[in-house]
Amino acid sequence: MDEYQESLSDLFPPPPPHPGARERINIQKSSVCSRAYFMVVMAFFHIYIINIIALLLYVHYNTGSGEASGAEHDVPLEKSTSAPRSIPDEHQTPTPNLNPEHSFHLPRLEGIRVGHVQKVSLVPDRTHNMRTLSLKPLLFEIPGFLSVEESSVVMQLAQLKGLTHSSLLTTPESQEEQLTQDEIFSLLDLNQDGLLQREEILSLSHSTDGSWLSSYNLRKIHSGLETNPSGVLSLQEFKRVSGGVLQYGRAGQGMDGHTRVRQRSTHTRLYLGEGTHHLLKSIKNRVTRLTRLPSSLVKLSEPMEVVRYEQGGYSHAHHDSSPTNPNSSCAHTHLAANNSSSYQGACRYLTVLLYLNSVDGGGETSFPVADNRTYEEEVLGDLSQQYCDKGNLKVKPAAGTALLWYNHLSDGNGWVGELDEFSLHGDCLVTRGFKWTGIVWVNIDPDQQRQERYQRLVSWHPEEQSKRAEHSDLHQDL
Fold first, then answer.
1. Is the dihedral of CA 152, 157, 163, 169 positive or negative?
2. What integer is the mean pLDDT of 426-433?
3. What three-state secondary structure class fits 279?
4. Per DSSP, what are the bridge partners of residue 270?
């Protein structure tokens, strides 16, 4: 049988393979699984990389624009104490959204501990080191806040405006000093453009120099501005509105009717609003960025005071602000106060002190009870006179350096609280050379509802903005 099959195979061999046929390849299943797994992993990896790149671009374009802008920023009041994101001022109304039915928080810097250094951004493309000097009061030092050249410009502007001897040298018993309407108009016209605007009236009324501008006088001038179609008052219109009733009060008497602190110096006030030198507006913006407060609060605060101490000049220890009192009103919001209280105090939430030059001898700023845990005024004696001899902390002036301290504590709800007694400070005797300082105060009323009424009262309307712009190019250097 086998022989028969072999003979058949010899006679009929198998046909040759077809030329188009392919040989079957034996593919193992494990190779297919490995390739599919590799493709899935690569797809997920590319999606992950794309998501990371998109996230970085989002963060860059949402945070970078605020730091790069040198324009004025308005920081709205938030319901947290963290620093809110800066928003360009031109996109905000000049009045923060204060609602008496809600509780808002004022941003407040953290001291951490004495000697702690943290970075702050005040101008584009530059950071400053802010060092904590004390926790009671909360006091910071910022070197390089101004350059030497900028400090020199501020001193020159003050000299051009004109320095006057401090009225604090006089006593309450001094005779009343009557000023003419021309002199009063010159005092009110802070940017010296010959036109009186509402901003200037309100700015001067905040300060101790404007203590003579009573609620009655302020309302009288304010009404004249409201009824004037142009929104400003010339000298002739001011004389017609005032009616000759404005008088300058006792020079040695403070807003609260008490004797002011004694000092020996000359001073002037420089307006930080529209129509002023660009450096003064830049200082206002830097203070806003440093304090992280709404720009409208800084804008509506009193003008910067520039003080020059000659050799032998000094300022006795004092508090910049007044104690909170429900029966009194703040000097800057008394226009919106519902009561007719004769007691008007300075409500200065914080102070930014700028050293404009380095003093050859003396002239330190002394905080006699800073971080003194056993502070007892009876034991320490008369600190108003011995503030330098017994001072716990004395800061030597250095050109361009700024000091920031809070005059008030927090009320526990993120608003202005009681006066911080530890903020007592004074300027030591200048023993050699002279000393220049610039002082910026931020005025906030401890009564939040009164602060809101005030800001609504002085808010600008769009049509008034256009009227004011007609005069914004006048006297840019002063």
1. negative
2. 93
3. helix
4. 304
77: CB partners within 8 A, 6+ apart: 96, 97, 98, 104, 105, 106, 294
Highest-confidence range of 25-34, 180-189, 221-230, 273-282, by mean pLDDT?
Answer: 273-282
Q: Residue 305 pLDDT more than 80?
A: yes
Note whether 288 and 405 are within 8 A (CB). Answer: no
| The token pair that represents 104 in the structure block | 């808002």
Distances 430 to 148, 303, 369, 457 between C-alpha atoms, Å = 21, 25, 21, 43
Largest Cα–Cα distance of the chain, in whole Å? 153
The answer to whether residue 296 scores a pLDDT higher than 60 is yes
d(CA 229, CA 440): 33
What tokens appear for 352 in the block? 């930014």
pLDDT in tens, 361-378: 999 999 999 998 766 655
CA-nearest of 210, 419, 205 to 333 is 205
pLDDT for 172 equals 36
Could you tell me which of 408, 388, 401, 397 has the C-alpha nearest to residue 433? 397
Structure tokens at 244: 């000759």
Pairwise CA distance, residues 217 & 205, whole Å = 10
Residue type, 368: P
Q: Which two tokens stand for residue 359?
A: 């003093």
